[in-house]
Design brief:
Blueprint (H helix, E strand, L loop, with lengths): L5 H30 L6 E3 L1 E2 L2 E3 L2 E18 L5 E6 L6 E2 L4 E6 L1 H34 L8 H33 L2 E3 L4 E6 L6 E2 L8 E16 L11 E6 L7 E8 L9 E9 L10 E9 L4 E5 L4 E3 L2 E8 L2 E13 L2 E6 L7 E2 L12 E3 L1
Parallel strand pairs: 1-22
Antiparallel strand pairs: 2-21, 3-16, 4-11, 4-15, 5-7, 5-10, 6-9, 7-8, 9-11, 11-14, 12-13, 12-15, 13-14, 16-20, 17-18, 18-19, 19-20
Helix pairs in contact: 2-3
Length: 367
């Protein structure tokens, strides 16, 4: 009897082990396949968008500014003769604030007046001469026709010269009036930058004085783009300032720019504030509360329906039991509801709980 070699025994044993392992793996794969759940349609709950036009409160920062504010510069070059007011002075419209001194302007005005007086005398003489010659010319042959024409020409020339002198004197007088700087409106001097003896004018950039009207103030508020059409003329607001803690003031919308500022993406609204008591100084920052209302109804959904993902903001709509993503823009939020803007209607079926895990085109079952 031939005894098998050790090598043959080893190969036989290895073949048996491989066969057993292959059979075991096949049975496990079969078991896993049998245990794997079958693909089922996802059940979802939906809701219809609701249309509403509610009022809502918006808090924004504002700034109190003088109703009128101006910096006064000299029109002509000269020396400051007197400054009659100082910072904080209350002034009335037309009140003299600064007097300048420019001797050359005074001399120019006097010269113009002298020329005007001389030309007035010349005109008086030429008028009388022309009148006499015209009267004498009524008798035939007493006055040559050329002499009458010459007198008429002289009279017209003197009249034109006097008109030019009037204009020149008016210009000189106006320049002389610029030496008196007066208040353009009732207000308060907010800054004084010159003293007596200073040379001013000739493209000097620093103003002599600055005046602000504080009896009435402008409360300016920058309203963001998405709220720009939610405020109407005549709307009332309440506001507070830090230097009057606990006090709530009110104002009424007076004017609003309809143009959207491209840098801040907002529009500026102005509210007139009565400050005849002088309680507010002007220039303060304010915290403003505005009652807003959309100009037309907008659509609202539960905030859980909105999905904010890296790919964008969207909601999931079930259209014939097939999911589709609808990109939306968000408005305001009130409680559990979120205002949305997009390709939506009140008849749409929107998933109450949106999630990025549900892919577009997936078939769902609506509960």
């Amino acid at each position: 009897m031939k005894i098998p070699s050790f090598k043959n025994i080893h190969l036989c044993m290895l073949s048996v082990v491989i066969t057993v392992l292959a059979a075991s793996c096949g049975e496990k794969q079969k078991e896993n396949k049998e245990k794997a759940p079958k693909d089922k349609t996802t059940s979802v709950k939906v809701v219809h968008p609701t249309a509403d036009r509610p009022t809502y409160l918006l808090e924004l920062p504002g700034e109190l500014k003088p109703y009128e504010e101006v910096s006064l510069f000299p029109k002509v070059k000269g020396f400051v003769k007197t400054v009659l007011v100082d910072r904080g002075s209350v002034v009335k419209k037309g009140q003299l604030l600064v007097r300048l001194d420019a001797p050359e302007l005074t001399a120019q005005y006097q010269s113009s007046r002298s020329d005007e007086n001389k030309l007035r005398e010349d005109l008086t003489y030429s008028r009388q001469a022309y009148a006499r010659l015209r009267k004498a010319s009524l008798k035939t042959g007493s006055v040559a026709e050329i002499e009458l024409d010459r007198a008429r020409s002289k009279y017209r020339s003197d009249s034109s010269a006097l008109s030019a002198a009037f204009s020149k004197t008016g210009v000189s007088g106006q320049l002389r009036d610029y030496l008196r700087i007066t208040a353009p409106f009732n207000g308060v001097v907010t800054s004084r930058n010159v003293s007596a003896g200073a040379l001013v004018g000739d493209n000097i950039q620093t103003p002599l004085l600055s005046i602000a009207q504080t009896e009435r103030l402008r409360l300016t508020v920058a309203i963001p783009e998405k709220h720009a059409r939610s405020i109407a003329k005549g709307s009332k607001v309440s506001f507070s300032v830090s230097d009057h803690p606990g006090k709530v003031l009110s104002a009424t919308l007076s004017r609003m720019s309809s143009f959207l500022d491209q840098s801040s993406r907002s529009i500026t609204a102005e509210f007139d504030v009565d400050n005849s008591s002088g309680e507010l100084g002007g220039g303060e920052y304010a915290q403003v509360k505005l009652q807003m209302k959309r100009p037309a109804p907008s659509l609202w959904l539960p905030f859980t329906s909105v999905v904010s993902a890296q790919s964008g903001v969207f909601v999931l709509r079930a259209n014939d039991d097939i999911l589709e993503r609808v990109p939306v823009k968000l408005g305001i939020r009130k409680g559990e509801l979120q205002e949305v803007f997009g390709d939506l209607t009140k008849a749409d079926k929107i998933l109450i709980k949106g999630t990025e895990e549900l892919e577009e085109g997936k078939k769902v079952k609506i509960q």
